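Page 47, continued from p. 46.
Same chain as before, 430 aa.
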Amino acid sequence: MRAWLACGVAGAAIAVLLAACQRDPADSREVVRFWAMGYEGEVVARMLPEFERRHPGIRVDLQQLPWTAAHEKLLTAFAGDALPDVVPLGNTWIAEFATLGALEPLDARIAATPGFAREDFFAGAWDSGVIDGQAYAVPWYVETRVPYYRKDLLAKAGVATLPQDWAQWKAAMAAIKRQAGPDQSAILLPLNEFEPLLNLAVQQPDPLLREDGRYGNFRSDGFKRTLTFYLEMFDLGYAPRIDNTRISNVWDEFGKGTFSFYISGPWNIAEFKKRMPDALKDAWTTMPLPGPNGPGASIAGGTSFVVFRQSQRKDAAWKLIAFLSEPEQQLRLHELTGDLPPRRSPWTASPTLVNDLYAAAFRDQLERAVPAPKVPEWERIAQEMRIVGEQLANHRVSVDEAAAELDRRADAILAKRRWMLDHKPTETAQ
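Result:
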């Protein structure tokens, strides 16, 4: 398998060699290969000169990757023994690469690094990188989802207090719907997204998978309560049965009052600021997610740094991670991208963050954010959740049928995992 996959990296390897030929032969610095994805890959280049100034014996070779190609490129590089030294992995990819044996454990380096206070990190973000009790990743930035809402429309509907739990949230949406009329909705829950349903599901005490991730746990009482609440949003007319492709522009429709609540991530703060008309610039903000019985949990997304096991420059690679994990550098990343720091200290050190009313709900929510299930197959299971959730919303299946169908689909996806766990070699006594 590695042999044929390795062919896929031949072109990239040649490009690297050609680039190396152009380097100054007098440059004897240790080279750390750093792959970074998306917009962060573009802006982190501005942060690296300070790192190289502090560490004159190290040079960072940065390669920027689009998110759409990153996962395949990393797997191909693994197969061809061509992985870089450092990568910020998407949090849902960490379990996959840990299972492959590609990641270097980081506990000893974390413990030996002054000022690297793991208790300063939000627990959900940190735990995303812990597999079987061992830390394989360190959060770079963190994402979660909260409701964006129209303050003016809630006030017009007589909602004086922000809802804290599901009952209060339903009451608020009922009031909005009465005021808005038949052509408007209270909330947008796009049927082509699994994230709203997932973030409601993790608010229940029941885990989404059981028996060490061997089987789905979607027939649990907790998940059925989530499905019931989710279905009610559509049946009561609070949410339209549509997906994002049926909405020409989410920001414009939010501005028109087509819906009053929209669950989304921190990246939309800048988009709403940019796209909302001046007359409505103070008419919207964010709030923490209500839960079944009070403030609710959510998923801790984002990315986390890893060092690959095959790296020959692990010490230098860790120095780069430690640098980019400093509170000052996390604030710098926030200034450049809007990404949220995974450590608490930057939130109190930065006047920008302290006074950011839109980010405040995310700061609150991050205290209750939890990792997604840590199995390599999770992203596939999440897509099945989206499919079955759409079937439920359109009454093609009942709550009980949806729960059973999700268990059936998850169990099929997890069949290989069960086999591998059941045939895992046991340690023999010495």
